[in-house]
Amino acid sequence: MSFSDSESSSHGGVSEYKCFRQFSRDRLLHEMLGSARTENSKSWKVLIMDKVTVKVMSHSCKMADITDQEISLVEDLFRRREPLPSMDVIYFIQPTKENIVMFLSDMSGREPLYRKAFIFFSSPIPKELVNHIKSDTSVLPRIGALREMNLEYFPIDNQAFITDQDRALEELFGDVENFKTVEKCLDIMATRIATVFASMKELPYVRYHASKALDESAEATPRDLIPTKLATAVWNILSKYKSSIPNFPQKETCDLLILDRTVDQIAPVIHEWTYDAMCHDLLNMDGNKYVHEVPSKTGGDPERKEVLLEDNDPVWLEIRHTHIADASERLSDKFSTFQSKNKAAQLQQSARDGNELSTRDLQKMVQALPQYTEQMEKISLHVEIAGKLNKIIRETGLRDLGQLEQDLVFGDAGAKDVINFLRTNQDTSPENKLRLLMIYASVYPEKFEGDKASKLMQLARLSPEDMKVVNNMRSLKGSSDSKKTTGSFSLKFNNAKTKQAARKDREGEEEETWQLFRFFPLMEELIENLNKGLLPKNEYSCMNEPGPTPEPGSQRRTQSTSERSTQSTNPHSIRSRRTANWGRARHSDDGYSSDSILRGESTDFKKLGKRIFVFMIGGATRSELRVCYKMTTKLKREVILGTTSIQEPPQYITKLKLLSEKELSVDGLKL
Fold this sequence. Notes:
By secondary structure, this protein is α/β, with parallel strands linked by helices. Strand 10 (289-294) and strand 11 (303-308) form a beta hairpin. It is 42% helix and 12% strand. Mean pLDDT is 80; it is low at 1-15, 479-497, 549-603 and 662-671. The protein has helices spanning 20-33, 53-60, 63-68, 97-107, 127-134, 168-173, 179-200, 226-244, 275-282, 314-319, 324-341, 343-352, 359-395, 398-409, 415-424, 430-443, 452-460, 464-481, 522-532, 561-567, 597-600, 622-635, 649-658; strands at residues 45-49, 71-76, 88-93, 117-121, 143-148, 154-157, 160-162, 204-209, 254-260, 289-294, 303-308, 540-542, 609-617, 637-643, 665-666, 669-670. Helix 18 (464-481) crosses helix 23 (649-658).
């Protein structure tokens, strides 16, 4: 019986540099399921999981992968199960008292449900629970392995994971007087974040958005301290890993930056014009599931078909982070190229033109038909989706709204423009008008003081419930704005009667090819400054401050305080313009095969620098995920996004409504 974590590592002794998502898949399939395949073990086994670990597994592996590891049956720990005394069993469970009790009830006594048990825990197990297992002498001889896998995160992308805490925003920023709820939420979050580093054998510099209490200003609120508390909890767990996990790094190997949603409140509500973001924003998708109608094979009514827009779809991988107009052009070109080069398509067109097909031609068509059908379905699917998106954009006047949103953010529009839009576009949906006012409130907070906000809401014909969303957002922002800010990250505004800006374009950057592709999240500039070693220490503290000389290859540069202040003289410049062509994937000759940005760089994995992890408390956005891909290419460092959940704009607005009224106030008035 062994009790240890995996001994593989992404550093030192391992030549293969794996991408992020591959780590969890390989560990689950080979280190866990594969390790139970011994000479003394029966071939086919049962796999038992709880409600959390089954999600961990499903985010990394498909059922076919599990079956390949000689798993014949997958069961729920808490459901009644038939005895299979001739079969071995693998338990992948959380180390909770309830789970241990269920395991012991399965395996103890004269007639256990299974022959031999291999137990793998998703996170560190307390000593008292280990002793509880050891105290049952009838179970001990039936245990083949007892190990901590330390894998309790949920990969949702090649470069992203979630802790699966959809209510984190409400629990941490709502009724903050409920300390038990806050502490429980942060404990789960810290444990799951730490298992990412346990799996990858990485030890990060843990940086976090510091509370104002760390400088000379007023006392910090409970909300201000949330990133600090999370960073402390993560570091405490990682410190234990250094002594408990074999081959765990003793020196820092990467960077972790912990942020909360108050850092950037525009990103969750502004219309993002990439294909991925627009699909999730405008099409009412259920996660990555898209439902569409296809012709019936029997000639009847069209059938509803569900498809997943994810990594195994090469067309999706190519266009997901491109502008919707660019995606539409690519799809059109791809469709034409495919039709002209695919053998089955050529022969079908020849038959339509009245030409007779020889037996050899028919044979070629039959051979090419399966590939033709599969590829044609994928391209046609995205042509249909892009058509729907463009139709919604036209019918809702989204271009004009999107232009105003971005003009507001970059200081090219002001109060008159917003008022004029609301007066002349009364048919705009309430949600879109609310999102516009939320952006307006972020850039012009003084326009929502006193009765000004209610007048704007009346003009927009929005309800008191909608007003609560704006007020709750302002309250959260007020908490973060009270933190002292410096340099290029400040949100200061001029007192003069001029248009204000929350972003500023940088000079010398390549111009964007597409309209409405100007906005970018604050996370982009934070990652760049982290890479350069330019994060202001009074805003972004470090739990394990690095020495004055950076490690080789870390790409960090030190800079004096005077130099830093000299470069950060413009208080409005908190964002910079992005590079236009970063997201263009390579095209293939057949117009079909394509790949993701990171996968396209996979042959250069060994050349990448140390990883950067960014964790966003309260939910991250599709635009922030896109930024991680862009920064990976630009900085030659794999940038991995972690968050409590991925936020779509409608869901974020709903969550702001649900924040506790008792705790939130604006200008000293309770809501």
